[in-house]
Design a protein that fits this description.
By secondary structure, the chain is α/β, with parallel strands linked by helices. The strands form 5 sheets. Strands 2-1-3-4-5 form a 5-stranded parallel β-sheet, sandwiched between helices. Strands 7-10-13-6-14 form a 5-stranded parallel β-sheet. It is elongated and about 95 Å long. Helix 17 packs across helix 18. The longest helix is centred in the first third of the chain and has 26 residues. The protein folds into 4 domains: 129 residues, Rossmann fold, CATH 3.40.50; 173 residues, 3-Layer(aba) Sandwich (Rossmann fold), CATH 3.40.50.300; 76 residues, Helicase, Ruva Protein, domain 3 (Orthogonal Bundle); 45 residues, Arc Repressor Mutant, subunit A (Orthogonal Bundle).
Length: 454
């Protein structure tokens, strides 16, 4: 069976012509919706997203120019071809000025329609590809972008291609800096949706009202400043993938709207009354313990289960230290203007560091080292002093100099470190972390409070 090439809306009041166009386009493997007048066509535009609209000009209830205006309002990325038996040069010029892609006269040849539609879809595809390239600043996200050789990451590499073939929602968990967006991008680029848009949004960077407008769009006049109707990112992502980063930061009022999209693929623009249908694969991510957020009433339980159909966890860098030398080599090549290496002593310090910021923190450190050091071989003294000092605490007992060793401070640092390690191992579940340290929950909670650990 031939893959569907795209969605076309045909608006034509003459039944025989409408059927001819429908049959012709369906034979070319397009998904075709028909309408017998302009008003019916406009209703379709309010509830569905089309790649192309072919509309007659002279029609009852609403003419082709009204349809063209509605396309620009409800779906600005849709291409419009106008057809008429009463064509004039002036009408053609007016149609093109108002945003029509092409204007053809009846009677037309079958091959003429085929060619115009084919060129229209080619133009749309090139425009979308250019938009994606600009959005991503010509950066390609693939599985190869994730640098790792550890056993835990190799298991992740095996999982990603399998999950990519599914349309099911995926929830990526992991600390900040572990590479959640890289994994989300790989899921899209290894999927059948890779030819469509990969749209991303960070839920933590928008206030509630603006986040809703960004995701779902808005209609003209729905709020102060809404001078034109705007398509939301869900419409931009139609046919592709939508990555919702920091999903736990989404306000409860929007979570119900996202749940609706997951359940039936529909939503409404802000201030709108018409349902819009999209086909989008949703990928979400969080660095928080989402189950704890559910228990605290900050996140809807039903939405969590909808998002967590395929859970993917990225381990922190300190749990896969064998990846550190590989990553260091990669970042040295990326940021050094000339070939650079790292000494065994410097590598040992970096291997013993806790890396709370994970791969992102490691990349920043290597970039700083290559910027500030002219040496070909990166030495321990090129490593930021605060990082070296923290790494030393994990290597063993320090030497006792005269008046230079603070035992109380050292023991506090050890206690804090093990509290954090236990939380890491338990993925933030405090009762489990207390059990790992053989502490009562009350005692464990008291220690967290003592050191301001949250």
């Amino acid at each position: 069976m031939e893959i569907n090439k795209g969605k076309i809306l045909v608006i034509e009041d003459e039944k025989s012509m409408r059927e001819v166009l429908r049959i012709l386009l369906e034979e070319e493997a397009y998904e075709v919706t028909t309408a017998s007048d302009g008003l019916e066509g406009i209703e379709h535009l309010k509830s569905s997203i089309f790649d192309l609209v072919i509309t007659d000009v002279k029609m009852p209830k609403a003419d082709g120019f009204e349809v063209l205006a509605s396309v620009k309002e409800f779906s600005p990325h849709t291409i419009v071809i106008m057809v008429t038996a009463f064509g004039t040069t002036e009408a053609a010029i007016e149609a093109m000025k108002k945003g029509a892609y092409d204007y053809i006269h009846k009677p037309f040849k079958i091959d003429e329609i085929r060619l115009i539609v084919q060129k229209a879809f080619e133009k749309k595809r090139l425009s979308e590809e250019l938009s994606v390239l600009r959005e991503k600043f010509q950066t390609s996200f693939r599985l190869e972008n994730i640098i790792a050789k550890s056993a835990k990451m190799q298991e992740l590499f095996k999982l990603i291609p399998r999950v990519a073939q599914s349309n099911s929602a995926a929830l990526i968990t992991g600390e900040s800096g572990t590479g959640k967006e890289l994994v989300a991008s790989a899921l899209h680029n290894l999927s059948p949706r890779k030819g469509k848009n990969f749209v991303t949004i960070n839920c933590a960077t928008f206030p509630e009202g603006l986040l809703e407008s960004e995701m779902f769009g808005h209609v003209k006049g729905s709020f102060t400043g809404a001078v034109v109707s705007k398509a939301g990112l869900f419409e931009v992502a139609d046919g592709g993938s939508f990555f919702l980063d920091e999903i736990c930061e989404m306000p409860l009022s929007l979570q119900s709207k996202l749940l609706r999209v997951l359940e039936n693929g529909t939503f409404r623009r802000v201030g709108g009354t018409a349902d819009i249908t999209v086909d989008v694969r949703i990928i979400s991510a969080t660095n928080k313990n989402i189950m704890e957020e559910v228990a605290n009433g900050n996140f809807r339980e039903d939405l969590f289960y909808r998002l967590n159909v395929v859970p993917i966890h990225i381990p922190p860098l300190r749990e896969r230290k064998e990846d550190i030398p590989l990553l260091i080599g990669h970042f040295l090549s990326k940021y050094a203007g000339t070939p650079k290496r790292i000494s065994p002593e410097a590598l040992n310090i970096l291997m013993n560091y806790h890396w709370k910021g994970n791969v992102r923190e490691l990349e920043n450190i290597i970039e700083r080292m290559t910027l500030l050091s002219d040496r070909e071989m990166q030495m321990p003294e090129d490593i930021p002093e605060e990082l070296s000092r923290k790494a030393d605490h994990l290597k063993g007992l320090p030497e006792i100099g005269e008046g230079s060793f603070d035992l109380e401070l050292f023991m506090e640092e050890i206690e804090k470190d093990y509290l954090l390690r236990a939380l890491d191992r338990s993925r933030g579940v405090k009762t489990e972390a207390a059990r790992l340290l053989n502490l009562s929950f009350r005692s464990f909670r008291h220690r967290l409070s003592k050191y301001g650990i949250r």
